[in-house]
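Researcher: Let's continue the batch. This sequence belongs to ArnR1-like winged helix-turn-helix domain-containing protein, and it's 100 residues. Same format as the previous ones, please.
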Amino acid sequence: MMYRKRPRTRIEIYADIMLSLDRMGNCDRLSRLAMMVGVPYDRLIRYLNELKSLGLIRWDSSSVYLSKKGMELLVNSRGARDELVLALTGLIQGSIKTIT
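Model: Same format as before. Here are the structure tokens for ArnR1-like winged helix-turn-helix domain-containing protein:
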């Protein structure tokens, strides 16, 4: 029986985007970021909009990069993907509670 890898959750993809942006410094080619993260371009755009609305990235006409809040989250999780996923989960659940 072959082991099948489970699909990544949306929050895991957020973490992968943030880690990729951290490695790149900033990104002026979204197609390259989409390839690094392993998501289709149109889905990357949706995820970037969601990360921007959470205040974790800055996105202007020329590039995408981590915001101060995004950098702090990354530093606090020591750049470890699993810890970043937990921090993002807490942040997103907290923002959902404040909306409702």
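Researcher: Any comment?
Model: The two ends are 44 Å apart (CA to CA).
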